[in-house]
Structures are given as structure tokens and as C-alpha cells.
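User: Quick one: structure for sequence A, then sequence B.

Assistant: Sequence A:
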Amino acid sequence: MKKKSILLLCGGGPAPGINAVVSTVAKIFLNDGYRVLGLHEGFKGIFNENPSIKEFDFFHADRIFSRGGSTLIMSRFKPNKENLNTALFTDNNVKLLVSIGGDDTASTANRITGYLQNENISISNIHVPKTIDNDLPLPDRNPTFGFHSAKDEGVRIGNTTYEDARTSQNWFVMSTMGRSAGHLAFGIAASCHFPMMVIPEMFNKTEVTFDKVVNLIISSIVKRKIKNIHYGVALISEGVFHNMSNTELKKCGINFTYDDHGHPELGNVSKAHIFNLLLQERLKALELDIKTRPIELGYELRCCRPIGFDLTLCTLLGLGVKKLFDQGLSGCMVTANSRGEITPLFLSDIQGKDGKIPPRLVDINSELVQLYFQNLHYIDRHDYPAAKQYLDVPEDYDFEKILAI
């Protein structure tokens, strides 16, 4: 009889800690007598007659544990009408499909195992949730793996940029990843003491527009000028683009392309460059002679080495995959709470009526966020007289008026 095996694949974009999950899963299943097969190119391999497969031994699993990136080539491929390679599962006696990725990866894995079930091929599937955006609604608001490592790398770059701003007496416009939520931008900006941060959650009472974002940056610039501080960094989450209407997006002059999941491919353009150009135009119109430079925090954050927090979390999640599998569970995510306890999370528990998983957003009304806002620099009504030196209508740059709060 053929030896039992498990199949591992990674979907979506990289996140620090993927290799730690893969390594842990491989080691624990190898120790239990399974073959461990890694599938390159995500789901594309399942729909390929000649998939590229990596068979793990202990030494490879041990070697990759703390590395950044992914030992398995990743893909955002989303199957449409392609034919499933069922022989991949039957020929290798696959008993478990382990998927590592976001909610799209999890739902696709469920559909594949459901199709296999209809073909009388019974396998389990367990998903390990991954995103540096930290926007999956995990229990107890626990972080997704990779988030803290990406934030740590962003803070390293952010602190260097802020030091440059102070040294050169310039301003920098920085943008960072975060499709739906501003967790990454908030964490970096708060840690670096940036005077302005713009995340999509701030616009919960008003429509997000390019003008409002630029006005928030100018509000910070002028507030600091009043304080005789002539440098700073404004950090903008790319998620503001996802919250803009199509009409508003067209104003920036960029024709966005879209991925297989219908998301604008923001990685193709520099968001910091767009906002910096718009800011420069406005500063020129206001006759404010201020130098600003764009800094894009993009792919630099995704493949850095995981920090200790994520190495611990990813090890726990990898061991949790084996625990849930041994319990006979399938079609679920593996999650760990702050006490280190493993529990399953089924998609049906977090999906909305439309079948989609609503993103976990930054709680803009939390004490954490409200206290941080006190550390930002922006114009309020008390600054109007002083701001008149630089702005004809200071009210247009009032933080609370811009955000309708």
C-alpha cells in the first residue's frame, strides 16, 4: 500500500513566517511516518498535468525554518474552468491538503476538497491564515502571522527615513501596504512617532478623496511650521485607494490593472509617488516652499526574516495543523489564542451573507487609536490665527473638519 502523504501549498503574497509554518508541519508529519509534498505555484499546480513538487526531508525542513520568503513558489492563481489534476492526490495517497494564505486561498481549498469528495477522493484540508495586513477576523483579535515581522521591518525603515527628514529638514511622503485595513500603517506610524498618518478607517464618516488626504498632510506640515519644526514624515496606507470611488481614482491619471480576485494591482504603481506629486502641486499653489520626497514601503516588508514573535506563532500554528487533523477536522483554519491554545475556525463562522469574509479593521474609536491621535500634529480651531500666515482658509485644513468628526 502506498505511503500516506500530505500536500502543502502557499497562495497569495509572501509573509514572514511561511517557512516556519512549512518547516513545522513537515517535521511533525515526517515524524508520524507521512511523506510531505510541497506544491510550487499554489493552486496552479493542482490544475497542471505536470506539477512541480518538492518532497521534504527533515534536513530541508530544518534548514528553512527561520528564513524569510517561501521555499514553495507562490501564486495568486484562482481556478476558473481548468481541469483538476485528481491523479496528484490519488497517485500520492494524499490524506491532507494544507493551504497557507488569505481568505481567498482558504475558500478555494474548500471548493477543491469538495470537488474531490464528489469524485470519491476523500482528503482533509486545513488552512493556516496568513497576511501582513492583519485584517483577518481571528478570535480575540489575535494577529495574523507575518504582521509583526513586517511591521518591525517597516519601523526600521521608517525610523531611518524620519532621521533623514530631521537631518535634511525635509518632508517625506511614505506609503505602505494594507489593502483593506490600516493596521500596518498604524503600527509603523505610531512606533516611529510620525506627525501624520492616514488610514482608510479614518474616513468612516466621510468619503475619502485625494484632496482630503493631501489636506491632512498639509495640516501637519503647517502645524509643525507653527511649532518651528520644519521636517516630518506622513504615512499613508494604500488602503485609501481601495476606499475611493472609480471616479476619484481616475483623478490621479493612473489606469489600474486588476488581479484575478478583482483587486486593483497597487503593486504596479508607487502610491507615495502619486501623493507626493499631488502634494507638491498643492504646496506650489499655496506658495509654500517645502521639499517633499516619496518613499514606498512595498515588497521590502514581505520577505524579511521573521522576528521571534512570528517564529513562535508559526511553530504553534504548524503543530496545530497536526492536532486538528488528528481530531478528524477539515475545512477549517487553525488559530491560536494568547494562551497558546489551538482552536479551529470555520469559514462559515466568519463569512458574511455574501460569502465573503469582512476584513478586520483598525478600531478607530478605541482608546489606543484616540490616544495616538493626540501625538499627531495637525491644525485645529485654536491654530487658525497662526495658520493664517500660511493658509488663506485654515478651516479647510482642520483635522476634524476634514474627517467630519
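Sequence B:
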Amino acid sequence: MQLKPNAYRLNETVKGVETMSRFALAVLALASGVYTYLGVRGLLDGSASFVFFAAVIYSAAVSVAIYAFWSFMLRFVPLVTSGVQRIALFLTMAVGCAMIIAMSSWLNAAALAGSAALEQHMAVTLQGYAEDLDQAHANALASQSLLPDVERAAERFAGLAADERESGALTGTQGSGSVVQLLTQMSAQMNQLAATITGSREEVALLFEQGSARLATMRELVSTPGAIEPRSDSFQAEAVQLSAVIAALQQTDVAASVKRASADLSAGFIAPVADGRSGDLALRQDQVMETVRVSVASQSLALTTAADEILANPAVEQRRFVPLSSAEAVIRYWQDFIPSWAGAISIDLLPVVLVLVLMIVHDAMRRDSASLEEAENITAAEMLRAMALYRQMEAAGIDVTTGRPKPEPAEPEPVEEVAEAPAEDGTVTPIDAAQRKRTDTPRPA
């Protein structure tokens, strides 16, 4: 191929970087194989020797496949000029890239960011457990909000009993009778309900403290540097203990107990028999006890409604920590590790850039070159003989392009001598300059 200066330089440059291209391709294939080995080793189970040899064989197969595939692409794609054939090669290259990503790139990403992805998984799970603990603690404390209402009801019944006993504020007759007995009984029931609510407060505080300690330990396991596998195992053990604490917190919720107790106040209301000595006093006692019954029913309804509102809060669902492999964690949390994915894929697909560069350079060389297919394999001796034959044909008067004798040059026509003749007006007409020159030139004697 007869090359123009620019095409010649491009051709020489391509030859110069060919060795470098092979070396770079080999290094990339080797690097991909190494990271593939690190990624696949975490997926295999079995003895140490089995895992080692299986990972080595798989990574070696990946390296050979990547090197062979890109070698084919580097050789063939730049040489194909037909549009249809080039599109077919591009489709083949796209399929090959997808297969390389499937068998190597995700394992490379697992090797690059596997530990960080597992830490991310533990951090996300830790956040979920912290939310569950806070929700269970809030539900348990919500029952404590019923305590002021219960204590006020107990104090009100106790105060009415005291007033009736001392001044007969309700019946008009002081002393301890049926009304005082009933009011004292209601106050005692309310005090028992308040004691139940108060007793759960200490247990809730203790359980929340235990859950907070478990969370602190889990945070240390997430942030502490070191091997991820033992930290993941310890994290799972702490997660199980924290789940038990959260379940215990939910069981300490006394809202259901308060609801049942408040319902019993109304449904189980038993008024004592009026013990007044006179009929008028007995009638007043019955009226007051009926008022107390209505008040107890109203208080019971209010406590039941408040307990229903607390019980309407969604219960904390049981959460379970699911251990993941590094490859699974990288796939699940891929959005958090886009740089690692980009690096892993670039190792395998960087030769695409080399293929495109060579394709563009070869297209430029083809545009800048003049093709002489019959002279591509000529030797120096053949060139010398061709030059000698060319000179002989020129000396013999043969046209090199047509192979025929050159035509003889035509002889110049004779020039007639024209004398000067006077014009009618007496002027002289000029004669040909060449003829004048021949006329004026003296002839030799």
C-alpha cells in the first residue's frame, strides 16, 4: 500500500503501540482475575483447599476469557469496513461485555466494596432496631399517661368519702354509712389501678436501658475496624438479644390491663344496701349511690376510650437480622457504592476504548492512503528492472502509457516574403517582424 506521510506515521505508531496494547490487555485481564478470585472466595463453602482451588480455577478462566475476547476485538474490528459487518461486530462486542459483567464485574465490585457493603447492611439494620426500640418504649410510656386520670379519680372518691364521713356532704347526715363504704371502695380500686400503672414504669425503664446498651454494642461492631465476618456474627447475636428486649417492652404495656380494669368498674359495680335508720335517710343514700354509679360509669368510659387510643397504635413487628454475603450486600446496596461498581466494570471494559481508537486510526489510514494493489509486494530488483525498461521505452520513442510509438513532430510551414508597398496615401505598411529580422540580418559572404 502506497501511504501518504500522515497515513505512514499512523501506521508506524500503530505498530509501535501493539506490544504495549497486548501488555495492557494482559495486565487488565490479570487484575480482573485477582479481584474475581477475592470475590468468588467469599461465595464458596467447604474446606480451605477446595475453596482455594475452585476460586483459582474460576478466576483463571475469567482472565483467559477476557484476554481472548478483547484480543479478537482488537484484531478484527479495526479491519472491517462494511457497515453491516461492523454493526454485527459491535453487537457481538456488546453481548461479550454483558457476559463479562455477569461473570466478573460484580465479583470485582464485591472484592472492592464487600466489607463496606456488609457494614452498610448492619448499619441499616441497626437503624431499624433503634426505631423499633423507640416505638416499643413510646407505646409502653403511653400507658403511663393514664396514671394522672386514675389518680385524680381515686382522690376524688376518697375526698367525697371523707366529706360524707365528717360533714354528711352527700346525704346530709354525717358518719360512716353505705355511701362512705361505696366511695371508699371505688377509691381503693382506683388506687390499685394506679399502682399497676406505676409498677410497670420501673420495668419499662429497666428494659429500655438494656435495649440501649445492646444498641451501643451494635454501633461499636458496625464502626470498629477489622475483619467483617466475626463482627457480623457478634452483631447477629446482639440483634437476637435486642429483639427479646423489644418483645418484653411490648408485654409491659398496661393499656390492655387498664381497659379491662376500667370496664370492670362499671360492669362490676355493686352498690351496698342503704343502712339508714329512717326511710328518708335510706332514700337519700340510694340517690347518692345512684349518682356514684353514674360517675363510676363515666370514669370507666373515659379510661376505656383512652386505653383504646393507646392500643390503636401499631405494634412493633418482630425484626430479624439476615446475614448477607459480600456479593449480595454489594448488589442490594449498589446505589451507595457506585464508584466501586464503576471501577470494577472499568477494569473489564476498558479495552473497548482501545478497540475504538484502533478503529478510528485504521479508518484515517484508509482515507489518507492511495491503494496500488499490484505494487504492494514488489521487490527492489523488480523496481530497478521497471525503471530500466521505462528509460529504454523513452529512448525508443514509445509512449509509456499507451505502448505505441510517439508521433513525429510536424514541420513548420514556410513563410512568404512580403515587400513593403506604398499605400495610396503615401505611407509605408509594416511587414512581419520575423521577416524584417531575416531581411535585416546580413548574409555571410
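Residues 417-421, 426-439 have pLDDT under 50 and may be disordered. Strands lie at 2-3, 369-370.

User: Thanks, that's what I needed.
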